[in-house]
Specification:
85 residues; mainly alpha; 5 helices; 2 strands; 6% strand
């Protein structure tokens, strides 16, 4: 099924890019151009990424848990995570 009609990007292609590490609509756009013309597919891409298509999302969440254990104040943990990215 097509996600982006403007550039002919399919759901499978988005999932493949997500498996390769593209975990945001912007990263999917960089990899495939999907979402860069009319923009009507961006919500669909967000939906696909939100359903676990991105294996790195688990690693980010694990990193947050580890940082929270070291820096119990959420603001400090978030700042440290942003700096690490």
């Amino acid at each position: 099924m097509y996600v982006c009609n403007c550039f002919g990007v399919t759901e499978e292609q988005v999932k493949k890019h997500a498996e390769g590490g593209a975990c945001t609509p912007r990263q999917i756009a960089s990899a495939s151009k999907a979402g860069t013309d009319c923009g009507s597919c961006v919500r669909r891409i967000q939906s696909l990424l939100g359903r676990g298509a991105c294996p790195r999302r688990e690693l980010v969440e694990q990193g947050r848990s580890a940082l929270t254990a070291v820096a119990p104040e959420p603001e400090l943990a978030a700042a440290a995570l942003d700096e690490a990215a």
